[in-house]
Write a sequence for this structure.
């Protein structure tokens, strides 16, 4: 254990709080667990880690929380982190939701899994904290054949000066070594690359301690007994047109070559999300595959495995490719987004 460790400026209760924003399958829960173990068992802080998620389905939202305080203070709070000092966003698609970065203190730090510059990220509803870091965690994980979470932990070590990267790496090796020994070397390289390749894309010289300003993570209710909508009525029904599964992709997607396609339909039989687009015809047997709607493609690549002609191939996803090559299932309908 390393002694004399001090947390940076904390809240009025003496807590330093972290929130990992992710989707199922990227390892945010394990990342939070590793972070807390390193801080508590190796740096001597008091701390707690817990996560919030739904069905645990790959691609569904997940939040992982870490709360730390000095060793001479008790930590009895297990509520969600709503005013974090650090937010780490594991997938760029999550930035479309204002709640992803909600509550981040102006004095805090934001880590983004992206290859874009700060100017290119201007279309997202981002806060302007003291520091913003960007790291291509998916790209690193693909190249090293590992997971996004260790690259994000490396970036977190870069953003937090009190956290010795060697201590965090030691915790990664211990935890993965007991469960997945074969993955230790690749994740060690991934962590070091995340630390070294994290770029400071924004830094404010004027951001200071926060007194509670900023967007609340959980706003107050807007309805009372006079303003609540009628009960028993669905006035705004849900619609699958609004679904966006692009956040589920982990670096790869299927690419369609119409010149090689014999339109056999095997890909359509195995696609779990019906994202393949077929042309209309008077006789169903003559319908032809036109392309892929990447908004609904989560990158499972079952279509690639089933294709007998090589018309569907697995390729590394590049920024803007999905939008440029997307064939919409519902042309002109509301809710159609870029899909990456």
């Amino acid at each position: 254990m390393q002694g004399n460790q001090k947390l940076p400026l904390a809240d009025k209760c003496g807590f330093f709080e972290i929130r990992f924003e992710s989707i199922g399958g990227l390892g945010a829960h394990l990342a939070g667990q590793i972070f807390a173990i390193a801080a508590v068992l190796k740096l001597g802080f008091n701390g707690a880690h817990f996560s919030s998620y739904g069905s645990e389905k790959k691609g569904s939202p997940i939040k992982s929380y870490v709360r730390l305080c000095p060793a001479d203070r008790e930590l009895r709070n297990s509520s969600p982190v709503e005013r974090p000092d650090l937010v780490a966003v594991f997938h760029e698609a999550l930035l479309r939701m204002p709640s992803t970065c909600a509550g981040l203190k102006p004095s805090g730090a934001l880590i983004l899994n992206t290859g874009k510059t700060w100017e290119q990220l201007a279309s997202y509803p981002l806060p302007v904290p003291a520091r913003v870091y960007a790291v291509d965690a998916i790209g690193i994980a693909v190249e090293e054949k590992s997971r996004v979470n260790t690259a994000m932990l490396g970036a977190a070590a870069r953003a937090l000066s009190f956290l010795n990267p060697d201590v965090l790496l030691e915790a990664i090796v211990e935890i993965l070594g007991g469960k997945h020994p074969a993955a230790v070397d690749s994740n060690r390289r991934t962590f070091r690359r995340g630390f070294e390749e994290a770029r400071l894309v924004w830094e404010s010289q004027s951001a200071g301690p926060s007194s509670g300003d900023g967007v609340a993570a959980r706003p107050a209710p807007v309805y009372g007994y006079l303003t609540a909508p009628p009960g028993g009525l669905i006035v705004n029904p849900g619609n699958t047109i609004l679904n966006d599964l692009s956040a589920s992709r982990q670096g790869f997607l299927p690419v369609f070559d119409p010149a090689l396609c014999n339109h056999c339909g095997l890909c359509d039989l195995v696609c779990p999300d019906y994202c393949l687009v077929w042309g209309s015809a008077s006789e169903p047997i003559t319908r032809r595959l036109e392309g892929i709607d990447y908004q609904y493609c989560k990158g499972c690549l079952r279509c690639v495995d089933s294709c007998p002609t090589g018309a569907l191939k697995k390729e590394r996803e590049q920024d803007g490719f999905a939008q440029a090559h997307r064939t919409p299932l519902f042309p002109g309908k509301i809710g159609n987004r870029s899909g990456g």
Q: What stands out?
A: Confidence is low (pLDDT under 50) at residues 207-214.
